[in-house]
Amino acid sequence: MNTDEENKLNECLNLIIEKVCEVLTQLKSKQESTTSETDLSIAIPTTTQRTTITTTDDNDLLLDNSIQNNNVNTFTVDNDENDLLDTLTNDLQNILKHRLPELSKLFFTQRLTATILYTLKHNLKGLLLAVKAYPAALNGDLTTVQGFLKRYRDYKDKSGFWGTTLLYSAARNNHMQLVRYLIETVGCSVNAQNQGDINYILVTDNDNARPDPNTLGYDPDPKASSTALHAACFNNNLNIVKYLIDKGANYLLRNQLGETPIENGEGHQQIRDFFKDYLVLTYTNLPNASIPSEPILDCHDRVPNNCVWEYKPVKGFEWEEFTKSEHDT
């Protein structure tokens, strides 16, 4: 997303939020007016349908994030309000059609109802803040990311408009402090994958199943379904690589190009040396063995002598290596 696209998205979201807020104000005003008139008249039982909307103070981050409040406003659904909601639906569709036509067929395709207006406003504000938060993660702006996730924690493992997660962006540009915050404080999944390319068949762990990019008719996005470890390896961020693996990152997880993080780091000597020391010495007893590209149990040529087999006694605490004769049986 370039600057022009970002500005268009910001402008569009602000207009939509403004329209939704106007309708919420009108509904609240009508409710207060109806309540006032009722207090001055004799209550007469009716069968009028009523719809409940929950509202909250935007300054209260906890309540704003959970979209809950003890202050419940009830709006009577009458013809005037139905017309108001119909007009709002059409207005939002027109805003998208003229400003972001590629999204007009995805959003507001059905008539809006009063019960979802506040949730809609909350989610739209989340999208608006996400436009700033995801680039902030790429730039290592901890304060901006903290403020965003404090209000919209459900974005912690979601891909943004750029198709990448917050953790991926932070790991890509070697922002260790932000990476630690996302994993240790927010609880981001260390193996959360970026948004996949809908036009690309998800690659399996079977090497023979990898599609040839030259026959696809388009250039696959290398970051599709990649993890933070893919980004750290590709960008030679060794400290991030070590930290992510220590936190359980899967170094054999493939992205949609069929690449593992190990393969993404092949262009950097220190990344290759790290994986050679980390994996090969405990993975196999064969001399000059290459760095593995898949788990030992998934190896197609798995034979007894291409790995180190160990056992753990039922009443023991240490793993013991099988002898050579035991390996061969």
UniProtKB/TrEMBL annotation:
The UniProt record lists the keyword Magnesium: no
Any Pfam family the entry gives: Ank_2
Domain of life from the UniProt record: Eukaryota
Q: Which Gene3D superfamilies match?
A: Ankyrin repeat-containing domain
Which UniProt key words apply to this protein? ANK repeat, Repeat
> Know the name of this protein?
Uncharacterized protein
What ranges cover the ANK repeats?
224-256
